[in-house]
Batch of 2 targets.
Target 1
Amino acid sequence: MTKPAPKTFHVKSFGCQMNVYDGARMSEMLEAEGLSASAGADDADLVVLNTCHIREKAAEKVYSDIGRLRRDDGSTPMIAVAGCVAQAEGAEIPRRAPSVDIVVGPQAYHRLPALVRAAQAGKAVDTDMPAQSKFDVLPARRKQGPSAFLTVQEGCDKFCTYCVVPYTRGAEVSRPWQAVVDEARALVDAGAREITLLGQNVNAWQGEDEAGRAQGLGGLIRALDRIDGLDRIRYTTSHPNDMRDDLIIAHKEVATLMPFLHLPVQAGSDPILKAMNRSHTVDSYLRVIDRVREARPDIAISGDFIVGFPGETEEDFAATLGLIERVEHALAFSFKYSPRPGTPAAVMEGQIAGPVMDERLQRLQALLNSQQHAFNRSKIGIRMPVLIERNGKKPGQRIGKSPWLQSVVIEDGPELGAMVEVDIFAAGPNSLNGVITG
Ligand code: SAH
Ligand code: SF4
Ligand code: F3S
């Protein structure tokens, strides 16, 4: 059976920001091949589901999403499953969901056009991690909104015992200095004013500058700071053990580096951190936070937390709440532990019952939400630069970002991409309200 060559496509990304970046790169590649983007999945000849495997719910969702692509007449578009579920499950996916034509892993998506051709004749599966980097062959960057992502580092060698990422993204690789600088320039030329540098362990980035000197992420950020028209630099996600001095000092010295740090700690009890193989302690984490705050006193601290890791006692959990009290988070993401196939924690003793996890998650989120609201309220009466990123629901309403990554709602705001001075007059749990200084 042969299928016709697709003329239109739609890419849907789930999971982390890197998937959003990868989705944009796949779209650019398909456009370079002459396909055109359709408004949604319903009218596309090719649908790419760019998936996430981090927790069971995310991974299982893929199969219901695939089912939903079936159309009223019983036909399905050409379906490609990309991303971390593709890498983890490979050829198992079309066995379980026969309407899937293509499976492509995160390190092989530059071969998508060839896989689309192959899929016209039969199933096409590619979960290689080829030696040649996909970045060397991807097409040029296209038109951008005001804020863009840029992958500088990919993969993870840390092997936290709960996590699938080292298996789905592969080993840590840093993109070369010049490739990053060139792509950042291209993004700015295409309309970006803010760039968020991405990596599973972005602060483990290492490379050599034009002069052959060894550099870390702090040095790379200083190079990007010199790009005309690039007003804001951010980076995520960092690991506490890779928070080196050059990066910390950059927070003091580089004006375009925004005062925000996402530095997941996961838990606040040393025995649990050890069982997680996090390789930092509560104390070493708090010391890093102190150094960062010394360099940049107003920095917003963000984190990720897992509750109900195997063996977590009420005492361990109380210690996590204690750490949160000490750090005072501006933002945080928290999850119930989800056992992932093939990871060491999935077979550990002391798995925690669902209702216990639910109750702990509620308490943890109540504390984090109150901290977030307090942080937002601390900005009332302050004047700050806001980058306008999207339209709000009401006519004329615009939504932008504060330096601390808060959403700022402005009535009768200016055009997208404008950077404006705003006076903040109100703060909710998830956003600020402001008026343009006049
Ligand atoms: N590289 C980053 C983020 C990895 S995934 C880091 O090291 O922190 C994003 C978040 O998902 C993690 O920080 C963790 O809090 C959560 N997570 C990862 N695996 C999980 C699992 N098995 N169950 C629940 N949450 C998990
Ligand atoms: Fe996963 Fe740990 Fe690596 Fe983060 S550092 S991606 S949590 S293994
Ligand atoms: Fe999910 Fe893979 Fe990102 S598992 S969080 S899409 S690295």
Target 2
Amino acid sequence: MDRKPFHRLSADAWDEVNNPRPETSDFDRVVEAALSRRGFLGGVLAFGSGAAAMGTGLLSGGSAMAQEASRFGFTPIAAQTDHTVHVPEGYDWDVLVAWGDPIHEGVAEFDPESGVTLENSDKVFGENTDGMELFSFDGHQILAVNQEYVNPEVNLPGAPEGVPQNEGHVTKLQNMQGVTVVELAEGDDGWHVVKDSRFNRRIHHRTPMKIAGPAAGSDLLKTEADPTGTESLGTFNNCGSGRTPWGTYLTCEENFNSYFGSTDKEMALPEGYDRYGIGLDGWGYEYHVHDPRFDVSKNPNEPHRAGYVVEIDPTDPGAVPVKRTALGRIKHENAEVALAPDGRVVVYMGDDERGEYMYRFVSDGTYTPGGSGAGLLDEGTLYAAKFNEDGTGEWLELSEEATGMARDEIHVFTRMAASAVGATTMDRPEWIAVNPLAVEAYCCLTNNKNRGVKPNAGGDETPVGGPNPREANHYGQIVRWRPEGDDHAADGFAWDLYVMAGNPTVHDDAYGGSENVNAGNLFNSPDGMQIDSAGIVWIQTDGEDSNEGDFAGMGNNQMLAGDPVTGEIVRFLTGPKGSEVTGLTWSADRRTMFVGIQHPDAPFPDGEGSLPRSAIVAVKRGDNAQIG
Ligand code: FEO
Ligand code: CA
Ligand code: CA
Ligand code: CA
């Protein structure tokens, strides 16, 4: 493959460069398939007692929306194409923290021209902010936030095209990623990081971790440095997040494959590498050249120690993060926790790659409110989702019997286990969110140019149908399901589509989107998602922001608010050009909403003369009322 240099590319942009979209598609067939699916969806809506209310706003929701007053207390904003953040009238935003800001006293401020020094690189807010959760503990507000990846070019201004030249360069990149934990406080001039807080810490690519659960101690996880297979270094490509009822943070390892490479270009790829996209070249971070741990010719099991959900106690800066292998090894987007009526812990998870799967973990033990979570994420059952055409679905257990795999293999090569049981290949499952006011969950299926075009990396077909109704889907959709018996631990569910993104100003077929998409709320590629305490679905996008052609009128990436009952969706916030809006959490009093802005193009937020910086912004109402 003709690989182009990494430069400043997001994972999606990198993939677009190196695996460009197919140019041909049979348009007539596309339209026919999607339209028939659309008719079918009309029939899906009649399930459960709440189905009528749930369904009216869906693909036929226009009339219901017109009749009911909007529940949103703001005037939706127009699409934007500029280099800053916009929020509705009556709201304000301010920068909380940006890449390179010190998180401890005595650390030098960010240099707008040269960025961060190697010495300070593990003492500042990392790069490319993503999933985050705010915890209240003992009168403190503690933010745990992911730093997904780095743009080597801006972090290594002395290295040609950002290609690391030495061990120090690699160490700096490793330090700038992972997770940041910081205490926050609100003063007269807004929110700030409490730099002398004992909770502040950086967790990065070299931080000691424990490995727990069914794969811990497996031969597949043993390395020369760790013959026990239970202790590793670093958490990688931390994308989405989650939180447990017992007050811990879940950080999710997504494109972990990007950091590994080989100095031996002739070596045969070990089993399982292909399916996870682990190759000999890496994605340009060049760790393997300067740090043998990432050289798969020397440490072929090291990649098996990444791709997990990692649990962190934000209240104990000395606590060792734990990789929970019971939750499977995939390119984890986020981890959304729900409780079953009997107290078992349910974790919903998406694997963000074209044609990969959605997963669910159900604990063996039960959680008692106020009690401990010890062991709950280590012992349980892992499932993959199967969606039927008739609007039903089921969770398929990834048992040894059903997969023909040993227990440790299931938790290291989880994708193959899901393939073995015939789960449904999905259009890139991103964030999953559970509605706190109804027993239902939503998953953003961001887009999939390969839908109906080619199989996934495991050779599983990706037919058009079910919750993935459009060939070469470049707009994305949100699938929603309600478990049988109002029990997230039940194996059966009913599903429908909450929204199909599209562009009705360009297309009059299924690519025009569902009826709750209109000229005033155009968007593509739903990705981040949270449902707030009032049941509003907050949708963040990570898509094409050219504002041209099929994407005309969509503007920059954005955050929208959706009503789960009527289906109404309105635009709340727009990000600077080039950025992705990702990560959302609230202050304890729900008067501030924290929103992540990742990889802006231009010098946001400091203006001309500064490097562009990923940042978290704090959004408030002018009257300081609650917003979530
Ligand atoms: Fe890091 Fe799938 O988003
Ligand atoms: Ca991203
Ligand atoms: Ca994402
Ligand atoms: Ca994305």
